[in-house]
Each structure stands twice: as C-alpha cells, then as structure tokens.
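Troubleshooting entry. Yesterday's outputs looked truncated, so today I'm pasting the complete records for two proteins to confirm everything comes through intact. If either block looks cut off, that's the bug. Protein one:
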Amino acid sequence: MGNKLTRRLLIAGGMIASTVIPSIASAVDFNITGFVREEIAISTDDGGNPTNEHDNGTRTNNVIVPSFGHMVDPAHGNYNVIGNPAATSAGNQQLITHSGFGGCGANGILCNPAGAANFKLVGGYLSNSKNPNPVPTAGNPLNMLNTRSEIEIQAKFNENIAAYGKLRFYFDGTGATRDDGKPGPNYQMAGGPKGYFGSDANFGGGRGNRLEVQNRDMMLDIPALYADFNYGSAWVRVGQQQIAWGEAYFFRVFDVANGLDVRRHLFFGPGAEEYSDQRIASPGLRASYTFGNSWEIDSFLQMFSPSQIPNTFTPYNVVSDGFVVTNLNHDAAWQKMENTLNFGARLIMPDLFLKDLTVSIMAVDRVAPDGVYIWNQNGPFNNPSQNMQAVYKLNPFCSVTGYLGGPPSGSNPGPGGSCGQSFFQNPIGTNSYVDWFNEASWVRLDGVKGAATAIYELNASHGLAAANGIGVVDKQGRVDFVQGVSSLVQADGSFGANGAAAANIAAACTVAHPCAALNGWQRKAKAFNTVSGFFTAFGPLGGTIHREFKREQDVGVGFNYIINTKPGDLLDQLIVRGEVQYTPNRSFTEVSLSSVYDKRDEILADIILEKYQSIFTGIPATYLVAEWMHRTQSDLAGRLLDGYNGSGTDAINGSEQTRSNFGLHSMDYFVFAFQQPFPNLIWRADFAMLADRMGGIFIQPGLRYKPSGAWQIDLYANEPFHVGGNNNNLMQTFENMKEVFTRVTYYF
C-alpha cells in the first residue's frame, strides 16, 4: 500500500514538474560559467618544513646534544648551553641515535633505555624487521600539485529575486609525489597521513565545512548557495555565503564574520585576492537597509564554522607531525558548539561630518573561529576515528604497569577512557630536549612553561610536579618552575641534594598563595634537566592537543575618506581607510598550552592608503596600496606575543632573560603592494610585501598573462625571510616554505 502511494506521488510530482518547471525556466535568466585550473608550487628552500618529520634536522641519526652532567655557568647569568666548550667536549655529550624498537619495558616496543653515563639513546625510526621503513626524506620539491575546478550558476528570476551557487572540486596530487609514505606500523599513532583535506574540528567524517565531502586526496564542497531578494531599499541574502567586511591585503580588522580555511595553500595565494578563496562560507541570513539619507545598516545571522589549519604531514604544516589534534566531533562540547549562531551589524554613514567621509561602526557577537589549543588529557584514545585502541596497552602512561600510574579502572579502558596523559611513545615524536625546545620556539610557545604545565596539569604525571620544582605561579592557576632551595643550580650544572625541600615548596604553591617563578638561566637549566629526564626514561614521545572555541564580542569603528585635489596630483583620488577593533576578554592559546587559557583585552587597528596613479606614459594607471596595522596582544596568526623573544621560547640559543622581558608587548605590520597592467591588458605585473617591525619580511612578486578570455597563466614567488633576531618576528615560522607557484586556468 505504502509503495503504491509513493509511486503515485512520484508520478504526480513528475507530471506537475514537467508542466511547471519549463514555464519557470523560460522566465529565468541563467548564466553558467566556470574554470579548470592546475596549481603547482615548487619549493625553493633546501631545508624543508621542520614541523614535518622528514625535514626535522634535530631528529636525524647521530645528532650530538650537550649532556647535563657538566653544564657550567661561569658568569652566573651568561649561561648558554650550545657553544659552551665544557658542555660539548668529548665525554660530556648526549648522542641521539634511533634505537627504535628496543627490548626494554613490558611490551618490548618503543622503549629506549638510558645509555652509558654520558650518553643518551633517543629513539626514532629503525630500519629492521619490525619497521622496514627508515626516516623519510623530503625527496621531492613539490609543495603543491592540485587540480581544481569550479562551476558557478547565476539565476535571475526578475528584478527583485536572484540566486547564485558555486560548486568547487579539488584533487591533490602532491602526496603521491612526495616521500611521506607510511614509515612504519605505528604511523597512525601520530594521526597521519591526512593529506590536504580532513579536519580536526569537523562536522563529521573529517569535513571542514557543512557542505563538504572529502577523502585524503579529494574535496568537493559548495562555498556558495544563496538567494538574493531586493525590496526597494531593503536587501536580503539567504543561504551558504561568505560575509566580507574587510578590504585589506593580509589584514583583517572588520572582517570578523568568517574564519579562514588555509588547508590548501596557507596564506600564500595571491595577496590581491584578499582571502576570497580562504573565507569559510556558512549558512546564514544577511540583510541590509538603506535609509533616505544614504545611511545603511548591514547585519547578519550565521552558523559558526571553525577556521581550518594545514594538516600534519603536508608541506604547509604548522603543527609538528608528532602531535595529534584530536577529532572534536566526538566531544559533546563540540557537538553543541557546531550549532551555535554568530550575529552582528554595522552602520555605514556616508558624508558624515564632511563630504566624502564615510564612517562605520560595527558590533559582532561570535564564537571565535580560531579557537584555543590545550593539552588533551585523554590522549588520542578518546577518539575512535583514530583507531588507537589497538595500541592502547603500548602506552606506558596509560597501562596499569606504566611508569606514571595506570588508568582510572581496568587494564584497558578502551576508547573513551582516560589515561591521564597527553603523551604516548611514538617513533616520529619529539625525541630530546633540543627537539622539544626547538619545536616550541618554532610555533611561538614557551617550552619551559609547556613542560611544567604538561607535568602539573595532567593526572598521570601530577605527582611528579613538586619533586621537579613545579608549582603555581599566578592567581589564574598557571604553573612554572618555582624558586626554592634546590632550584639554585650549582656551578657544575647539578641541582643539589635538597629535593625534599623543593618538593615541599612546590607543593605549597596555591592559587591563593602562588610561588615566585625561577628566572633566566636557572629556569632554563631546570627545564632542560627535567625534559631530558623524561626523554631518557621514555624515548620519543608524541602528544595530543585539542581545540576549544570561545565566544567573544567585537566592536569597531572605521572610516573611509576620498581626497580630492587637482587632477593628476599624487594625492588626488587617494582613498584613506582606517579601522579599529576592540575585543574585551578575548581568549588566546596560553603559551604553555595550559587549560587555563589566556583572556585579555585586545585592540587591532589599521590604516590603508590606496589609489590609481599614472606613472608611465602609454600604459594604464598603476594601482598602489600601503597599509599599517597595530596589534596589542597577538600576531597575524593569532598567537600570543608572549611566545616571542624570550628565553622561554628561544631556550636553546637565546640569551637568558628575566620573566619581565618575556615576549613582545605589541606588534606592527606594514604592507606595500602594486598592480601594473600593460597595454591591451594581456600582461599584468603584481607585487606585494608584508613586513613586521622586528624584521620579518614576506615578498610576493607575480606576473599574470591573459592572452584571451579563456586562458590565464599566473606565476608568483613566495619569499618569506627575516633580518631580525631569533624568535622575534612572524616570518621565521614560515621561512622554510619559500616557493614559486603557477596557476594555469581555462575559463568556460
């Protein structure tokens, strides 16, 4: 009965559709366009991306690092491990070798016993019967080999109603050309390889967007699908959409509605495209109304979508391969957050106070799309999608007989159980104190506080905090190595025999009565010693972190002024834009990845100058733009400036500083760019430069060739580098990603 009724309804629906749809279609103006594009990027840097295992020089065989048995500090304040003859002399070194699957521990796998008195064996890859693949090497200069296609459909029903849709397809061929193949049976313990696509904070199945389907090598998504309605002075857009309130190269001040998806090419696409391909679209409602005096109110209500960062094991990776960013789709907090709504409005007031001056004010209540990263106490074992339960018992931090205590109940709580630790033994994980501090420095975290926090905050190792002199140092509950009797490092690098006294002091540190943190070389040496002890005992370690997303309120004011002087003058038709954003209690990732994340007020401000200027006779005018941005708490990547320029982040080679000198107190960025079209508009020269006041520089020259309406070839170079000191500028994080890239596009 039900099947017959269904068939009848389908037949009736088909008859109605065959009658109605042709009449509607005949009245609709359709326009279908699209393109097919090949995107190729070739690395011009021999070093490769050090966050990837195959490019990390501190994890290769036979790397010598100083021992802690004979560290000296003749000047008590001019302490430097690397380059210290006493620390690097024969017999006082640690030899990092890849002992791999040694025969220690109950499981006989991934264990690395301490070596002779003055050497440490640090585990990693070993080419043997259990692990036939040695450490992979980059082996291929390709950063990107992608095929992309887009189809756009525009439909105009009448003067008041229109619709637009875009279907986007990516195929990533990069992974097939690189030597990042699976290096052994425990490769999945690092959560990879994911390829370019997939996401840690996702909408199920690794999707980075609600309207996305993907696997390791392909992605199909709908970045736009909406309808527009015009009713006199009112305009409404409903559906999947981007909301672009900003117009600057590289900078985002008013542009707060959508996060960014930088999985495919980080921020290395053409600067002139102003994030149009990176903004993450999301279902929403946008409406504007223009009043009789030309003032306009523009508002939106949109579903939250998180920003997406490059995956591990990819050329643009910014998270160490040894770390897993856990899949929060299985987290109740994420499931609640994914249905959260963002909303905001801006009022645009032209000719306010004087002619050609437009003033805007905006207010947005949103879940910040970048999120905050914290240590994940459950490790990877709360995520069935990682298929980790098979290796659960191999983790000494989780097993009943483990070094740091067992799980809360039973010998194997399985997926969903807690092992009380973020760490697990992993052949491609961090394998020495040098590796630990280098990686922390690279991503602008504090390796000293990170070590203290990982020991103190996680259940399985909390009992070791006091013995290592780790205690609470502020009324927010954050921790560090604290001052105490045994914290005074002796001249030979030892820490005295007052462990009990130190334990008592650290245990007495509370939020109500925090202890004073160690400073300078004493703090550094204490952290080196503690971290080195963990790697000596357990070998190479992977770690797990996850993102949490916090709501914030952003308010801002901006202006746009057009200068009119004598035609042809340099200032004539110069557009001056300015924007200021203020966010109280914005949540930031703490530089130790503490669950006590940072909350601070932040101010972002920028000034933009742009105009077309005739510079050369006989060719079209040159488009020129200059910009300045000031940020009070974070860099352009959203990382706290506390992670810059301190001994906590430059722990290996940096000078020793007191805690008051850690980090930077603000940051300024500068942009200069131009576009120069040539006669017939077949050729166009592009140039963009981003610099920060500490010496980080990014240069992007480019050339576009468009011989016809159907074909276009773009050639660009991305050149990030720095001329300042270590760990005090933005581009040092990305300077190993130098490349040239081309896009060959056929439009239809």
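Protein two, checking that the full record survives here as well:
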Amino acid sequence: MKREYVMGNGAIALGALAAGVNVVTGYPGTPSSEIIETIGKYPHRGVHLEWSVNEKAAMEVAASAAYAGARTLVTMKQVGLNVASDPLMSLAYVGVKGGMVIVSADDPGPISSQTEQDTRRFAEFARIPVFDPTSPEEAFLMIQEAFEVSEKYHTPVLFRPTTRICHAYANIEVPECFRPKEYEGFVKDAKRWVIFPRLSFANHSMIERRNPQIGEDFSDTEWNTYTPGCSGKAVLTGGVSYAYAKEFLQDHRDVRLMKIGTPYPFPEKFVREALEGVEEVLVFEELSPFLEEELLKVIGKYGLKLKVYGKLSGHVPAAGENSCESAEAILGAFLGLDTGKEQIVPKDAPALPVRPPVLCAGCPHRASFYAVKQAMKGRRSYFCGDIGCYTLGNAMPLDMCDTCLCMGAGVTMAQGFHWVDEAMDGAAFAFIGDSTFFASGMTGVVNAVYNEADMVLCVLDNSTTAMTGHQPHPGTGRNMMGDIVEKVSIEKILRGIGLTFVETVDPLDLSAAVDTVKRAVAEKGVKAIIFKSPCIAISKSTKKAVINEKCIRCRKCIREIGCPAIVIADGAVTIDKNLCTGCNLCAQLCPTRAISIEEGGRA
C-alpha cells in the first residue's frame, strides 16, 4: 500500500480502480470531470477509458459491459443524469450482472450548473440504491462497496458526491497496483436482457420486494453512524453537511449526531435505533428535504413522538449549499445558543474587487458574437445560447445570449422563434460549441432541416471542451485511451444532414466574419457558420496589443467588446499585457487605428 494526496474526484477514481473496474465512460461536467482524467493518469492496463459523446451514450456503453459481468463506472454531473435518464430508468428494471456504479456529482449553490437538482431524488425515482459520501477518504472506500452492492442485487447503483467532496483534498492509502476484475462474458438470454412489458412488470415487483432488504443491509453498514450522547436533541445529516455539523458539535457532545451515508433505500432500522431517547431532531442536509421526508415517513409508519425541524419547517434554507458558517447559525439556533461573533475587519482593508464572469481576454467567442452583432445591426434577431463558455456572451456589452436552457437546446429553440415570428423578418441564430454540437446538437439540426426552418447555426469551434477543463472530443483527433484517431468533421456532418450553406471562417478576421454572417442571413433555410479559432488557453500567443498616441479616448474598444485586458488607468485606455493575447479584435474596430499588434508588446 502507498499513500496518495488526491482530490475527492481522484479518490473516487482510485477507489474504482481498487475495486477492479473494467470499463469507465462519461461526459465531462464540473464538478465530476477529474474522475476520468485521474484514471487516465494512473496505470490502467486492461481498463477501457473513454469520454463518450454524451451521458446517454456513456450509460449505454457501460450497461452492455455490465451485462457481460464487467465492473463499469459512469461519470457525469447532475444535469447530465437527465440526459442519461432514458437508459437508466430501463436499466433499473433490466438489471446488471457486473457491478455498475453511476457517479452523478451534485452542485449545491449552484456553482457551475443550471440547476441544484438532487440525485437522491433520481435514485428514489429509479428505485435504485444511492451512496452519499461525506469526505474524499470515505468516497474512496464507499465506492468499492457500491460495486459490491451492485453485484449482490444485480442493480445499477448511484454515487452522489457534491462539489465540496469532489474538489476537497485528502491523504488516502491505496494499493501499489490495480488489477481489473476477471469476468465471465456475455451470456445470451433474451428473457433477461431484452426489455418487454411482461419482464418490466415482473422486475418492478421484484424491485419493490428487494429494496426493503437493501434498506435492512444499509442499517448495518459502517456508512450510517450515530454518536452515543443524547440530551433529547439530535442532528440528522449526510454528505459534506455531516462534516460541518461534526465540527460545530465537537463542543456539544450531548447532542446525538446521526450520519446517513446511504439515503436510499432508507435505513429504517438504523434510524429507529438511533432515535432512542430523542425528542427533537434537526435535519441538516443539501439540497432537497430528502432525509427529512424519509424521517417523517418513519415517524408516521411507527407512530413515533418526535419533533422534526428542517427545510420543511423553515429552520434550514430551502436552496443553496451549506457551510461551516451556516451550520453554526442553524445548529446554534436549534440548541438555543448565541453564536453571534464580532467580525474582525483589518483597518484600511481594501474592498474585494467585483469580478463578474466574463469571456477570457482574447477568447475567439467574443469575436464570433461581435461579428454577428455587427452584421445584424438594425434587424430583429433572436440569439439562442447554449451550455459552455459561450454562455458568457450574455454579459454586457456583448448582450448576445437571449436564451440558455440546456445542452443542445439553442439549436431547437432558434427554430421555435422562427415559427412564432409573425412578420417572418426576424433572424434566428443558434450558438453552440464544438463539443456540445457532438453531444446534443446534431439531432436539433436534423429537426430544423426536416421541418424546413429558417435559421443560422453558429458553431463556435475552439477545438476543445473548454469550460470543463479542455477534454478531447470527436473533433479533436485523440481519445482518452491515448490514441490518435480520425477527426470527425463538423462540416461534413452538416453537409450530410442536408445543409448547402456551410462556411468556415476565422472569427478574429472581423470583416470576413461579418460578411459571412450577412450572406448566411440572406439565404433561406438552415445555414451554418463554423467560427473556427483555437481556445487561447491551449494556443498560447506571445503577441500583445499596443496603444499609441492616435488614441482619442473614445473608449469604443471598451464599450463594444468588453475585453478584460482593456482597462482605464489614470483616465487613459490601457492594455493589460498580462492578459492580452494579441487577438487583434480591438485593433480592427478602433476608429483611429490607435491599436497595433506587436510581438511581445514591444513597440
């Protein structure tokens, strides 16, 4: 054994390797992305590793491998589980032979997501077990048991770390080497693996009989614990909230602290035992009142006399993530303590800078948005955004993102705006990234062609999956097994679908980009512009913009593109050379040609 200092996602990855995982699939999404990347960095001979085209594909690849008896791991963030829900719901009925663990990383806050949805709800909906780790150390061990539970009950299992678990660091003890599990292989059996209504009915009945037994097993597991002391008050918690509660209650050992690591099926026997002598319970959890509702069911089922406080009673906030500070306030109020602390503010401390999220300096997406904006001046337009860095196109002064719903929705929503544009003179645009195009954009384009929509598809191709950490995708020419593969051409896909207007342009060539947009809008039907320029985070430039004496301080460069490298210092427009990448966009729009591009910024 050896010790490794790893991120929580790394602990999950190493735990899966220690469990003998054979196939790992997933789609990048913060806060889960580093799980697959960690496995890629460690020796993993005999383990197939892939970034799948989307979460649905990842789920289905892993499912067939689990049918063959292999241990499989699927990774995604909570909104990705929505994409994978179609196969998951059927898979819950069909079952598996090899252990199959689905990591769905929740994002309380939310910090980097559209929603705060709670994966525990999905577990209950699908009627499959869910594990809820409270620390990276626990995640490493818990995921190994998740594989065991999956194989014992022939069911996929959900694993629900949250952002603070995924991104925390810990020192864990891991094996010197990892060995994938040996497995039997697929055995043909249509009565087991082909889902028909009769099989679904029988298996649904089996699941409802099985789940109480899993709850019994969970009642005896090490993941559910409680402290012995009791003053009649108890705190019921799980996930990272347990760590916050534990820290606060270390000076209040008379309060019983109950930890639930396996929220579903709910460990009723454990909870009833832990409630002995308890009169009041505060349920402290993220995100939905899942534990609180399960506790209330137990109270009603067994006629327990117990007061319950939590989200439903208004004693715990209904939204947002918990923290040490919120634990102090909420638990302190429950215990009747005055936890008010005087804040110590250093004298003459500068105010924290306001830093709204913006596109990086030199980001080609800024140039793409600006080109469309310039081309469409004076004409009604609908700008449908999507999930990725380019969502930040909504920020002023660009203001180029009218809608953003979910991955791939921009393509289809642009079509909806076209159909309700009564005068039929508005132009509908859909902005989508190259990775998102492969993940969920192609079917929307097929829908547009089939239904004869009139829209412009803008593929913002920066040759990477930028927002989640620059993972490869089918258009980059490499995969997670380290192989150089044939690039999948977005242009050929679009032409294959039936588009006749498909043009590729460098968005940093402003005049050419504006001209391309104007010509696209003039055509009828579905048109596509591929704005192709590499992400500045992976394509470093030594060039810098320089402002000379021709500057008249009109501030057009600041007012129109909002590049963070262009600032006002002592009343003058200045280029921050630490941020500037020499993209040349500001130089092209300067009315007096006061900006030039120099190597290294030396005039």
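Both blocks look complete. Sanity check on protein two: The longest strand covers residues 427-433.
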